[in-house]
Design a protein that fits this description.
The chain is an alpha+beta fold. The chain folds into two domains: about 110 residues; about 60 residues, OB fold (Dihydrolipoamide Acetyltransferase, E2P) (Beta Barrel), CATH 2.40.50. Helix content is about 45%, strand content about 20%. Helix 3 runs antiparallel to helix 4. The longest helix has 29 residues.
Length: about 190
């Protein structure tokens, strides 16, 4: 069955479908964001995944570039170069990963830092006086929150002194590791 798939024109249809879907995805992403801004619609689709997918941070731009490159390379190798199915898939994957990686690097290092609301969490938060919104236990994790130019920021928090800090107290952020802040209570004068 797999060999029939590779020998038939179905693989070419899959390649063409990838090109078409990535084009539609790019258009929807581009115009969807612009339309949302024009209509003043802001939808928050964040899900609480408890850190399961924190390592996955691929931009939609990179995904679209991977799919388009995969599809186009596959079509070129099959239709113009008369390549067999397996080498065609390998070339398509290789080129897709290469161009997708370049697109991700472009997104991360060129496009993202140029946003006016972009800030470094470390630079923005260290030394800031913030409120505890979930009690920080002696040796556990609580939560703090503060507002900045991008909106409300919530971070996990641990006590620098190893003592409980109650909800509603104010603390100063000493250090940030990932999305967890090390905090100390504000000295009462």
């Amino acid at each position: 069955m797999f060999q029939e798939f590779l020998d038939s024109g179905t693989l070419n249809i899959v390649y063409a479908g990838m090109v078409f879907v990535s084009f539609i995805f790019a258009v929807v992403t581009l115009f969807g964001a612009e339309l949302g801004n024009a209509l003043d619609v802001d939808i928050d689709l964040d899900a609480d995944t408890d850190g399961v997918f924190d390592f996955i941070s691929v931009s939609p731009f990179a995904l679209a570039m991977f799919a388009a490159t995969f599809g186009m390379t596959g079509l070129i190798t099959r239709l113009w170069l008369d390549m067999e199915a397996i080498p065609s898939i390998l070339w398509a994957l290789g080129m897709g990963i290469l161009i997708g990686s370049v697109a991700q690097a472009l997104f991360l290092y060129v496009l993202s830092p140029s946003k006016s609301s972009h800030f470094s969490l470390t630079d923005d938060a260290i030394g800031r006086e913030v409120e505890v919104i979930i009690t920080i236990p002696n040796d556990g994790l609580g939560q703090i929150a503060f507002d900045n130019v991008s909106g409300r920021v919530t971070l996990g928090a641990r006590s620098a002194a190893g003592k409980q800090i109650k909800r509603g107290s104010f603390v100063i952020i000493e250090r940030i590791t990932g999305r967890v802040a090390l905090v100390r209570p504000v000295e009462q004068e």
